[in-house]
Amino acid sequence: MPRRILVIEDEAFIAMLMEDTLLEAGYEVLTANNGETALRLAQSVSHLTAVVTGIDLSGGMTGQAVIRSLRQTMPGLPVVVVTGFHPSAREADLRGIGGPTTRLEKPVAPEALLAGLAEVLADPHSRACRQLRRTRAAPSNDGSAW
Predict the structure, then answer these.
(1) Which of 4, 8, 53, 97 is the most buried (most CB within 10 A)?
(2) Cβ-count burial of 11 within 10 angstroms (0-12 exposed, 13-18 middle, 19+ buried)?
(3) If DSSP codes are grouped into helix, strand and coil, which group holds residue 132?
(4) pLDDT tens track for 1-28
């Protein structure tokens, strides 16, 4: 199964930098510049490994609303929130969106993005981690484990 990341970022240059970083790390990347486009993209694919999103998105839908909507159909979807808001700002409130979720503050170095993504993917409650455990538990065709 591909390691597919949905990047939701309305600043084109930042979205391109994130996409390049994730592609270089071996991920398949889908990008959206607003919440509505992101939800359509998510519905058009059979699998998402994780989401990287901003909070203040163009188009009227917040990052928090996108996360809640995605997690209705994909509970435990790992999410990295990238924001310029201070953690104590009202707009940066991530309560009630579920997990696993991690927050990174802009500007984000490529290494920090990959580390944040690795953190949410490794969370034992993440959808990605549960799928990996099921894959490892299933016997391979030649009987060997990987």
Answers:
(1) 8
(2) middle
(3) helix
(4) 789 999 999 999 999 999 999 999 999 9
Q: Which two tokens stand for residue 27?
A: 């991920």
- SS3 call for 87: coil
> What pTM was estimated for this model as a whole?
0.85
Cα angle at 93 between 90 and 94, to 5 degrees?
170
Q: Which residue has the tokens 């579920």?
A: 98
Percentage of the chain modeled with pLDDT above 90? 66
Distance of CA 102 to the CA centre of its chain: 10
CA distances from 136 to 61, 78, 118, 133, 145 (A): 37, 19, 18, 5, 7
What is the token pair recorded at 140? 């391979």
